[in-house]
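lol forgot to send this yesterday, sorry. struct tokens for the thing we talked abt
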């Protein structure tokens, strides 16, 4: 696929919903992002320094699972380049799904077949993108991409067997028995295809959509040669043994990589959330825990180590003599140290304590200050006004069909509890030397609750009972991630998470940013009791409208009070406030779209584990005295 056809934001390459192996919608149909090994970094060892993102704290944490990891590499920014001088480093992608149809002549075929027809008609390949019909009467009509894909629990993705779709076995009942099964409350049987051979040697498929029938039965595949046809009724009940396709790896000799897979593949819409879950880790930059060596010097050291001609002592002497850097810095960079697994809460505790206990660094890479507010803001003991903040997000792998929790991302595949299998973002898997990352600058406010009041509150029987209700619902949830997260769920976490959501909804009206531009970072454990609300560049934020709210504590107190009062009423009450479980897996209690939920991109826990009743109930709510 030509480099100048991929036009979408780089932030989509590393997010909760995008990255290597993901399907991204563009103006020219959807594409699958290929493994970043093919983006050109391996060919630019001498220029790699320009793309390196330095965060030694995060790098050290990742080495538990990626022992050979050397650098986090930035996603290149798309620019307009002349065709005779394309960029050396760029994301690679290919069209997926691979099947397209023409809305004029209705011809239905694989992408490679469409391209062959285009070339056979005497047209230039450069003008084929985006895919067009070569039929003279269609006047180069742009092709429509099919909407369905198949995925399995092992992370593979492939097209449906469209060439066999109209060729049914005699036992197939999918075209007839759906209404009967609905009456019996049974799952309809999926289409049964004869996959031994196509419907004929001269197969010529068409894909037609009825204007009157808007159901799946109004869409059908037909062969113009043999006249066999079948509609799409029951398509979501169709399953088959997975083909083990890895379309995110670069094709070799025109064929995409595949591996043996024993899982069943099921049908999904290509835009479904369950098609892709990115496994990402984020880290707030702490200057004190960084090695100040430049990217160029780091690469020089790496190259010397790779040649295996010098001992570490010789490398230290040579680098110090040639570059004039301190001996301790080179030794620190070469030191592997005690590499061990660091749970997410332990990792975050370092950030939490840094902002609360340390002074603002001299290098100005981040800028913050602690504000004591126990007498001015009800329920809170401290605020940290963060005028400048840096966050690094790195993608380690991805899954399909079901997400995994953050603590499982760095664990050995044999150790975690999931049935789904991770797929790597690198063709070198866990032996990769680089991982794709995104560096963002922004601002924020770290809210710290009154610890003494919090400890008294969470001992109440009613509070414990409501938390246990969420944990009980999680035990019966379909996804393993919900069950695992709920094991360590506490009333403190539900309270802080819900409060974070209520404040984000309120801040949308006072700080100038839409809610989708804000994000939360929860700090909850026996020693942590706060949350960070931040806005980063690349959104509509990072203009000072958020952190500057700390300049007027009286006004900020009014904003928080307003958020609490707003939570006392919901347009769905009394159904919402009295709910025993709602949302995915019944993992929310008194929380719905009308009162508590925020845009998916803002929330760390997928809009789950929320209960505003813990905040506003007159008997046991954390802010009940404020409401009185």
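and heres what i got for the seq, position by position
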């Amino acid at each position: 696929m030509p480099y100048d056809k991929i036009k979408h934001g780089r932030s989509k390459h590393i997010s909760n919903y995008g990255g290597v192996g993901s399907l991204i919608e563009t103006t020219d149909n959807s594409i699958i992002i290929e493994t970043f090994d093919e983006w050109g970094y391996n060919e630019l060892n001498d220029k790699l320094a320009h793309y390196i993102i330095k965060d030694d704290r995060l790098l050290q944490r990742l080495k538990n699972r990626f022992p050979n990891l050397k650098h986090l590499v930035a996603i290149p920014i798309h620019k307009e380049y002349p065709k005779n001088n394309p960029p050396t480093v760029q994301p690679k992608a290919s069209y997926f799904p691979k099947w397209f149809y023409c809305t004029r002549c209705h011809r239905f075929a694989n992408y490679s077949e469409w391209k062959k027809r285009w070339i056979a008609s005497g047209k230039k390949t450069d003008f084929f993108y985006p895919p067009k019909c070569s039929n003279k009467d269609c006047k180069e009509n742009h092709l429509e991409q099919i909407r369905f894909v198949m995925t399995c629990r092992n992370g593979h993705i492939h097209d449906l067997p469209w060439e066999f779709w109209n060729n049914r076995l005699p036992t197939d009942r999918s075209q007839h028995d759906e209404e009967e099964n609905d009456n019996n409350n049974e799952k309809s049987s999926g289409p049964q295809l004869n996959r031994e051979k196509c419907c004929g040697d001269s197969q010529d498929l068409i894909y037609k959509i009825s204007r009157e029938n808007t159901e799946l039965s109004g869409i059908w595949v037909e062969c113009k040669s043999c006249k066999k046809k079948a509609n799409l009724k029951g398509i979501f009940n169709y399953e088959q043994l997975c083909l083990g396709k890895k379309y995110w790896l670069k094709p070799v000799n025109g064929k995409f990589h595949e591996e043996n897979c024993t899982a069943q593949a099921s049908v999904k819409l290509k835009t479904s959330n369950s098609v892709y879950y990115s496994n990402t880790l984020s880290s707030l930059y702490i200057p004190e825990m960084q090695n100040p060596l430049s990217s160029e010097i780091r690469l020089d050291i790496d190259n010397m180590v790779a040649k295996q001609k010098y001992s570490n002592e010789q490398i230290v002497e040579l680098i110090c003599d040639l570059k004039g850097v301190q001996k301790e810095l080179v030794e620190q960079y070469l030191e592997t140290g005690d590499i061990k697994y660091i749970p997410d809460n332990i990792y975050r505790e370092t950030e939490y304590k840094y902002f609360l206990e340390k002074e603002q660094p001299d290098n100005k890479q981040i800028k913050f200050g602690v504000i004591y507010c126990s007498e001015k803001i009800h329920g809170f003991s401290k605020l940290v006004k963060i005028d400048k903040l840096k966050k690094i997000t790195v993608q380690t792998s991805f899954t399909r069909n079901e997400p995994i929790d953050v603590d499982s991302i760095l664990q050995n595949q044999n150790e975690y509890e999931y049935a789904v299998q991770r797929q790597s973002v690198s063709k070198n898997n866990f032996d990769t030397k680089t991982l794709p990352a995104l560096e963002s600058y922004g601002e924020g406010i770290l809210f710290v609750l009154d610890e003494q009041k919090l400890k008294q509150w969470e001992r109440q029987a009613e509070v414990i009972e409501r938390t246990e209700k969420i944990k009980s619902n999680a035990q019966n949830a379909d996804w393993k991630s919900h069950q695992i997260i709920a094991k360590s769920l506490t009333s403190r976490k539900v309270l802080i998470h819900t409060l974070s959501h209520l404040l984000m909804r309120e801040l949308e009206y006072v700080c100038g940013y839409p809610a989708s531009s804000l994000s939360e970072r929860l700090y909850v454990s026996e020693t942590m009791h706060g949350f960070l609300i931040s806005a980063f560049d690349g959104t509509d934020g990072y203009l000072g409208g958020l952190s500057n709210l700390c300049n007027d504590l009286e006004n900020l107190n009014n904003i928080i009070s307003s958020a609490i009062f707003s939570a006392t009423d919901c347009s769905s009450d009394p159904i919402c406030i009295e709910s025993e479980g709602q949302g995915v897996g019944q993992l929310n209690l008194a929380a719905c779209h009308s009162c508590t939920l925020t845009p998916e991109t803002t929330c760390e826990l997928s809009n789950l584990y929320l209960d505003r009743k813990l905040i506003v109930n007159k008997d046991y709510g954390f802010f009940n005295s404020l409401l009185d």
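The first strand starts at residue 23 and ends at 26. anyway ping me if u want another try
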